């Protein structure tokens, strides 16, 4: 370990540098940490620092290239001159800037933090050491919490803030939001050393089911720094997850043995029963003492009996179906519906923050799945209506680009309608929500409606159309392929 001395004589510690990205050993650095306010330095060093950043680093921190080489404008991008912002530097012996961190007040008790490490000095522990120095300063100031916003794609930064004790608190646009609560993290003797805060490292979480939705969901957890062990019944979906830091289990038995919380995103109840070995000798061992999080859409009655079986064997169970297709899943913009015991729901809500723009508590099991089915009625009928409207417009010879522009600009427009309408106009059937999955969801809604003696005429019509689409060999296509069933029905009228 190397000792770093700031100007005031306090000590921060930095791990010995790791191998650089090219694989060679990086020579040790003698750095000094200090607030900018305590330094008499040439501000041009800060400008040089910014202009030496690689394009990718500029985009992650500022959204693109710096607007100009004007020194004053450049420094304003760092918050210099803003009375709410404190700037901290890591300096080389030559006076060149190795890293910059900012602490911007958002209230009397909270501040937002940001970090930039020079592109040629990354992966050496400098960022961890500088952030640790700043966390100690925030404690000394009496702040209650720190916030950090990190782009989903910035895997290294997500891991770093998690390592220092920050916890996910939800998505903010294209970023993940993290929070560090300082009273518990360190006012009483916290000494961040750049390697890890006193907050325990997040526990290993298991994730089974890496299909169209499961893969991007697991990937967002891994990118957020959540230690993750994954397994899929069909191999071949591990590469991106491994690159993001997830570990790969050899089988379900290993995953359950190593993880106290297991997320399941499986196709149906048969797959769920198989993975859990429900009714078999391994079921008790796989659920006892564990929190099972079911994120798939299944029959509410099935979920109710599964919850009872898991609890009978000493396990815990939470339903967490999500609203959204693959694109929102990739962006971490899903909406989760949660049902279970209150103490479990708070754990799961925090765990799923990197995946969801919002999580809504829906009471006891199977409240979340019933809510999901109600949401699906609207989704299925809306997209089917959009397909029929597009079919009508095309057959009438209307300008489909103009048709789409009118719908997109009107009061009925939504993220889903804009996304699906663009695919309909382009006849792009690349899967986001597969016909086969929509048909299965439609069946679940219809069965729940019949069991409760609720009429579902629109769902019955949709079920027939999606069934006809699947019969054309389009079960793996996106749900907008239902337009093919409409086209075939039109052809029979001639």
What does this structure look like?
The chain has 494 residues and is of the alpha/beta class. It has 3 domains: 2-187, 3-Layer(aba) Sandwich (Aminopeptidase); 205-365, Rossmann fold (3-Layer(aba) Sandwich), CATH 3.40.50.720; 377-492, Orthogonal Bundle (N-(1-d-carboxylethyl)-l-norvaline Dehydrogenase, domain 2), CATH 1.10.1040. It has helices at residues 44-51, 55-62, 71-76, 126-141, 155-163, 182-187, 214-223, 239-243, 252-258, 269-276, 283-287, 300-312, 326-331, 342-351, 367-395, 400-409, 415-426, 435-451, 457-474, 483-492; strands at residues 2-5, 11-14, 32-35, 85-91, 97-105, 110-117, 145-151, 167-172, 175-181, 205-208, 228-231, 247-248, 261-264, 291-294, 316-319, 322-323, 334-338, 356-361. The strands form 4 sheets. Strands 3-4-5-6-7-9-8 form a 7-stranded mixed β-sheet, with helices on both faces. A 6-stranded parallel β-sheet has the order 12-11-10-13-14-15, sandwiched between helices. It has a 3-stranded mixed β-sheet with strand order 16-17-18. A hairpin with a 2-residue loop joins strand 8 and strand 9 (175-181). The longest helix has 29 residues, at 367-395. The radius of gyration is 26 Å and the shape is globular.
């Amino acid at each position: 370990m190397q000792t770093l001395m700031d100007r005031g004589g306090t000590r921060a510690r930095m791990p010995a540098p790791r191998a650089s990205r090219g694989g060679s050993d990086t020579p040790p650095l003698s750095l000094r940490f200090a607030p900018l306010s305590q330094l008499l330095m040439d501000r041009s060093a800060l400008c040089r620092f910014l202009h030496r950043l690689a394009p990718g680093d500029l985009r992650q921190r500022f959204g693109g290239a710096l607007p100009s080489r004007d020194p004053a404008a450049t420094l304003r991008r760092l918050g210099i001159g803003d009375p709410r912002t404190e700037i901290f530097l890591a300096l080389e012996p030559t006076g060149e800037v190795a890293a910059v961190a900012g602490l911007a007040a958002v209230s009397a008790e909270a501040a937002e933090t940001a970090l930039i490490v020079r592109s040629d000095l990354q992966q050496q522990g400098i960022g961890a050491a500088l952030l640790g120095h700043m966390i100690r300063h925030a404690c000394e100031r009496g702040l209650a919490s720190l916030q950090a916003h990190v782009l989903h794609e910035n895997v290294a930064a997500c891991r770093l803030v998690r390592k220092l004790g920050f916890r996910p608190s939800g998505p903010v646009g294209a970023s993940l939001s993290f929070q560090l609560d300082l009273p518990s993290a360190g006012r009483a003797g916290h000494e961040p050393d750049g390697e890890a805060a006193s907050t325990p490292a997040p526990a290993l979480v298991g994730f089974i089911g890496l299909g169209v939705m499961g893969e991007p969901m697991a990937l967002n957890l891994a990118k957020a720094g959540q230690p993750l062990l994954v397994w899929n019944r069909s191999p071949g979906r591990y590469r991106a997850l491994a690159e993001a830091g997830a570990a790969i289990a050899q089988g379900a038995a290993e995953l359950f043995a190593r993880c106290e919380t297991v997320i399941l995103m499986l196709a149906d109840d048969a797959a769920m029963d198989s993975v859990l070995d429900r009714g078999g000798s391994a079921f008790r061992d796989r659920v006892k003492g564990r929190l099972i999080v079911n994120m798939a859409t299944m029959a509410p009655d099935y979920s109710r009996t599964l919850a009872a079986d898991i609890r009978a064997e000493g396990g815990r169970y939470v339903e967490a179906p999500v609203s959204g297709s693959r694109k929102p899943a990739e962006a971490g913009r899903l909406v989760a519906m949660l049902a279970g015991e209150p103490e479990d729901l708070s754990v799961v809500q925090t765990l799923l923050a990197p995946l969801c723009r919002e999580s809504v508590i829906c009471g006891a099991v199977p409240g979340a799945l019933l809510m999901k089915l109600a949401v699906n009625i609207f989704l299925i009928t809306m997209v089917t209506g959009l397909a029929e409207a597009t079919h009508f417009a095309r057959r009438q010879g209307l300008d489909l680009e103009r048709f789409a522009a009118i719908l997109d600009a009107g009061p009925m427009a939504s993220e889903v309608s804009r996304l699906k309408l663009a695919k309909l106009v382009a006849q792009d059937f690349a899967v986001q929500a597969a016909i086969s999955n929509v048909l299965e969801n439609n069946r679940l809604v219809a069965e729940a409606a019949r069991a409760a003696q609720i009429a579902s005429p629109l769902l019955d019509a949709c079920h027939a159309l999606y069934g006809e689409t699947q019969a054309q060999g389009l079960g793996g296509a996106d749900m907008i392929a239902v337009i093919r069933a409409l086209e075939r029905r039109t052809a029979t009228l001639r």
